[in-house]
Design brief:
Elements: H1 4-20, H2 26-35, H3 54-92, E1 101-103, H4 105-115, H5 117-120, E2 124-129, E3 136-138, H6 140-157, E4 162-171, E5 174-181, H7 211-221, E6 225-231, E7 234-242
Parallel strand pairs: 2-4
Antiparallel strand pairs: 1-3, 4-5, 5-7, 6-7
Helix pairs in contact: 1-2, 3-4, 4-6, 6-7
């Protein structure tokens, strides 16, 4: 998909090329070619544009290209819908037994990212640096709440425009999961208070102040640790979970 600026540039370049080759109707041909996603290396097509019925040939090609593009869009939309439905089903499922199970942490993070894909695609670049982690014994539904809170907070800190880096590492006896955003950062005065219940830096009505308190309690439940470092332009939440 081209931007309007790119489309104009490609079209003008093609018009100039076609006119230099003495091809009639250069503007109409260039417009159709760009619509089809063709914008360079058209020398092999030049003989077609000299045929008496060049218009029929080009229109037929355009119809086939449009049909193929429509099929591709449907396939992509279906695949995305399937991922969202799977993520929602997984997210809504809670194990009432409250027993720890073997889980892949990357699966949970990817599920949360799928749920946030609409917010991510309009201005957030997600960089993943995944280590080869072992499965750990945990409450995966609870940890998905942790990933949800940390990702949501990172997006808000960047006002939904910036870079979110998610890194995982296997350390001695632990796995580490780090979420880094390039938002404005957390002031030194606020930093010691962010895990306190009911403390929030958000405007009234936008935050309960319980998100990070819940995160901390879930991490405590897993006998893990969570800590944060922040400077202007870089805030990192690090979660350490033991490998049993």
């Amino acid at each position: 998909m081209f931007t309007s600026k790119e489309r104009r540039q490609f079209k003008q370049k093609l018009i100039g090329y076609l006119e230099a080759k003495n091809i009639d109707n250069a503007e109409e041909i260039a417009d159709t070619l760009v619509d089809m996603g063709i914008y360079d290396d058209i020398e092999e097509f030049l003989p077609l544009f000299t045929l008496p019925d060049w218009g029929k040939v080009l229109n037929t090609a355009y119809q086939f290209a449009s049909f193929k593009k429509s099929i591709s869009l449907i396939q992509r939309a279906t695949a995305k819908s399937g991922k969202v439905v799977f993520a929602l089903k997984s997210y809504a499922h809670f194990d009432n037994k409250q027993e720890k199970v073997d889980a892949n942490l990357h699966d949970g993070i990817e599920m949360v990212l799928t749920l946030y894909q609409n917010q991510l695609k309009h201005g957030i670049e997600v960089i993943k640096k995944y280590d080869n982690l072992p499965k750990i014994i945990c409450h995966p539904d609870d940890l998905n709440q942790v990933w949800t809170n940390l990702i949501h907070n990172a997006l808000q800190a960047m006002d939904y425009k910036g870079i979110l880096t998610i890194e995982t590492q296997k350390q001695e006896g632990n796995v580490a999961v780090m979420f880094t955003d390039n938002g404005q950062g957390i002031s030194p005065e606020v930093l010691p208070k962010i895990f306190q219940p009911f403390f929030t830096t958000k405007p009234a009505g936008e935050g309960s102040g319980l998100g990070l308190d819940i995160v901390r309690k879930i991490i405590d439940k897993h006998e893990g640790k969570i800590f944060v470092t922040s400077i202007p332009g870089e805030t990192t939440f690090t979660v350490l979970l033991p490998i049993y």
